[in-house]
Amino acid sequence: MKIEIAGQNAFIVYFGEQASATVSAQIQAAVTNIVDSMADCLIDLVPSYASLLVIFDLDRSEPFAVRRKLRDALANLDGVDTSTGELVTLPVYYSLESGPDLEIIAERGNISVEDVIDIHQQQEYRVYAIGFAPGFAYLGEVDERIAAPRLATPRQKVPRGAVAIADRQTAVYPAVSPGGWNLIGLCPTRMFDPNRNPGMPVKVGDRIRFNAITREQFLAQGGEL
User: Fold this and answer.
1) How does pLDDT run across 154-175, given as a tens digit for each residue?
2) From the candidate CATH numbers 3.40.50.720, 3.30.1360.40, 3.30.70.640, 2.60.40.10, the one assigned to the domain spanning 2-73
């Protein structure tokens, strides 16, 4: 792990070269340790794929002391449990109606549409980062058989709740927006609601499972077609 200066009152900690379940679990463990030891001077913690941005209050602590506390908080993270993080299940209406790119992914992997749907549900995904838009959680990693590159020409309008794949990541679009990911279904769960606390049903480090529902169940749960 490397600690580098990221500003007058910020450090960034690099946990590895790329995201993984182990790195994600280490970041979450580090967040807990840092909050416990530095709560009096913390302004914000921003976790991402393989790094953690630590922003602190210069009026409450000076950089050398913060770096020292960071080193202590990062000690002994090698054996962290990768099953940490809340398990969140998200319902998905998989179909050609709700997932216009299902057939393309199936053809690419030389499998059936039903196989794509089954494979997408078979594993847990780690929330590696949240960005692009509020509530847009980058989840990884999808099975290689259903991995697919981004569309050559992004769609101008992707519906709220669209479940999508890009390379070996999957995600749920929290709002109507442009997007170049491959669409395989629709999720009725709102991924961002500013009127709720918390505003998002998932956070970095959580584990996600997808569960197939029918068209009728999707509409009954507030989904829109």
Assistant:
1) 999 999 999 999 999 999 999 9
2) 3.30.1360.40
